[in-house]
Amino acid sequence: MSDSAIIVAELTVPAREAPARAAATAAWLLEQGVIRPNDRPDPLWRPSRYDPGPAASTALEHAVDGAVGDGVDIIDRRQIHDPGGNYTPPGCPRCAVPLDVDTHTALILPWLDGDEPLVTCAHCGAAALLGDWTGHWAVLVSDLAVRFTNWPPLSQAFLRALHTHLGPRCRLIHHLL
Asked: Cβ distance 166 to 13 under 8 Å?
């Protein structure tokens, strides 16, 4: 079980394209040396398919001494990505007023089973897709994501490069237990 994770979820890649996009992203991360195959996976200790690679530190915001993180998973199936125990509802992309908790919670399962909902802000009237509402600790649904388990913050340059491989609507979810 992990203490934290940085999840980069791509919100527009459809389920039929997710496996190919995931494979291409894995190939790029392997080529860059950010990840390497986990040669000794253990369901309890090191369950991730990939471990930090020899160039993992190039993906980080700041240099670190020692181990970079515990693992990396590339997810190519529809899934809810949550912040763990730090949930806060996302804010309106125009006025930043948070969505009501009950309203937000009620939208997640239908999103998992169907299309991303369009949400209208009760404060300013702006309408936006739920994934465009902002929040460091929000909940999102996607068919494609990369999960960095117990990694330090990733650099903006690395995130931009990763976004070009995943797709146009990437969002970060910070998961803490």
From this structure: yes
From CA 139, how far away is CA 175, in angstroms rounded? Answer: 10
Question: Helix, strand, or coil here: 79?
Answer: strand
Displacement of CA 36 from its chain's centroid (Å): 19
Nearest CA to 89 out of 147, 130, 146, 123 is that of 130
**Residue 3: predicted pLDDT:** 84
Q: Tell me the C-alpha distance between 50 and 10, whole Å.
A: 19
Rounded Cα distance, 165 and 15, in Å: 16
Mean pLDDT of 137-146: 95
Q: Does the pTM of the predicted model rise above 0.85?
A: yes
pLDDT at 1 over 70: no
- What is the distance between the terminal CA atoms of the chain, rounded to a whole angstrom? 9
Query: Judging by DSSP bridges, how do beta strands 118-120 and 79-81 pair with one another?
Result: unpaired
Do 92 and 133 meet the contact criterion of CB atoms below 8 Å apart? Answer: yes
51: nearest Cα among 163, 149, 144: 149
Distance of CA 44 to the CA centre of its chain: 22
